[in-house]
Design a protein that fits this description.
The structure is a single chain. The protein is α+β, with helices and mostly antiparallel strands. The termini are far apart. The radius of gyration is 25 Å and the shape is elongated. Helix 1 runs antiparallel to helix 2. Strands 14-11-12-13-26-25-24-18-22 form a 9-stranded antiparallel β-sheet. An 8-stranded antiparallel β-sheet has the order 6-2-3-4-17-16-15-10. Strands 5-1-7-8-9 form a 5-stranded antiparallel β-sheet. The longest helix is centred in the last third of the chain and has 13 residues. Strand 8 and strand 9 form a beta hairpin. The mean pLDDT is 94. Helix content is 18%, strand content 44%. It folds into 3 domains: 112 residues, DNA Polymerase III, Chain A, domain 2, CATH 3.10.150.10; 120 residues, DNA Polymerase III, Chain A, domain 2; 113 residues, Roll (DNA Polymerase III, Chain A, domain 2), CATH 3.10.150. The chain is built from 6 helices and 26 strands. The relative contact order is 0.11.
Length: 365
């Protein structure tokens, strides 16, 4: 192996691949990356067995070959270099890096121990812009569970139906759904991606603005652009039938300016208790919402906001943190809050946006 590479491209694709490495003590080879030169491309591969990435970009090739090295050592080495171009060669089992002012030798690992990334053979494929797929994940992944007790809840559920791709996540106390329109004759499918993998996939896709081909199989999903190939395992479980818990009717709905709601929530957070209780009273007679939070150690606050109210007066307790979390996801200037009754899920959405829905369960006081 002997090549000359653009340093900026090498840094970019190394950082992408490193999102799939693992600090694994039982399988130390997973802490490494593979550099392979093939058909005038440098291919950088990394995997933690659950998530893997392969990145490729053109380089000047004198000799093909491959080497496996510690990912942390390789990254730290190239990130501290500043030349425009960099020479990489495989010498006596080691990787040698040369620039105009630097020469670095990194000990090579046993390349036969490095796992091969699975290639997905599937008839189910979707072509979609990478930014749309990333957006779908980011809109919901934060509402998944951090616990592995129920793997279906620590996942992002993705399915296709009626020319729409749906991204859904829940921890059983709240649920977020994002809908993205698709084009073409696409077979319906369902799949579950572990939430940690989904979050990393979203971060990778933010670094590549390109058309994305998504392929689905029973145990794996692959996502491929011109320069990046990602594969992730899927969760072998069944996602809850969440459609049945979405209220079909609303007895009360309020419309609030997002900036007004954020100001109220920030103040309420100062006086919230350890359970993040927030009491919300929708007062139809006075055309206002009353937000109350109390903490026996610090005090209490009450905020009143004039608003548009449709329906009946109602009072409900909600988790303050759960409604703060969704504020960064909703981009609209106005927010609608719909309540059927104090024991049913509350729906929060941006006014005029039918592609994102957020449910949160009321709390018992």
């Amino acid at each position: 192996m002997k090549i000359t590479s653009n340093l900026d491209l090498l840094k970019k694709y190394t950082q992408i691949a490193l999102r799939c490495t693992s600090k694994n003590t039982t399988l130390p080879i997973l802490n490494s990356i593979r550099l392979k030169v093939e058909n005038k491309f440098l291919i950088i591969e990394a995997t933690n067995l659950s998530l893997g990435a392969s990145c490729k970009f053109p380089v000047t090739v004198e000799e093909e070959g491959e080497v496996v090295v510690k990912s942390s050592v390789f990254e730290s080495s190239i990130m501290n270099l500043k030349d425009k171009n960099i020479n990489l060669s495989f010498v006596k089992g080691n990787l040698v890096i040369k620039t105009n002012s630097n020469e670095i030798t990194i000990k090579g690992e046993e390349k036969d121990d490095f796992p091969k990334l699975p290639k997905i053979e599937s008839d189910i494929k979707i072509n979609i812009k990478s930014e749309y797929f990333s957006e779908g994940i980011k809109a919901v992944v934060w509402s998944s569970s951090n616990s592995d007790i129920k793997p279906e809840l620590s996942s992002v559920y993705i399915y296709h139906q009626d020319n729409n791709m749906f991204f859904v996540a829940t921890d059983s106390f709240r649920l977020a759904e994002r809908k993205i329109k698709t084009k073409g004759d696409i077979a319906d499918f369902t799949t579950l991606i572990p939430y940690k993998n989904a979050a990393e996939i979203s971060r990778v896709l933010d670094m590549v603005d390109d058309e994305l081909t998504v392929s689905f199989s029973k145990n794996q999903i692959s996502l491929e652009t011109n320069s990046v190939y990602i594969t992730t395992r899927v969760v072998d479980s069944v996602f809850p039938d969440y459609k049945q818990i979405i209220p079909k009717e609303k007895n009360t709905e309020i419309i609030l300016l997002k900036k007004d709601l954020i100001e109220v929530l920030k103040l309420a957070q100062v006086f919230s208790d350890k359970f993040n209780h927030l009491n919300l009273k929708i007062d139809k007679e006075n055309k206002e919402c009353v937000f109350v939070s109390k903490n026996q150690d610090t005090g209490e606050q009450e905020s009143r906001v004039k608003t548009t109210i449709t329906g009946d007066t109602v009072e409900v307790n909600i988790n303050l943190r759960y409604i703060i979390d969704v504020m960064s996801i909703i981009n609209e200037d106005s927010i609608a809050v719909s309540i059927q009754n104090p024991n049913k899920p509350i729906i929060v959405s941006g006014v005029g946006n039918k592609d994102f829905t957020y449910l949160l369960m009321p709390m018992n006081r």
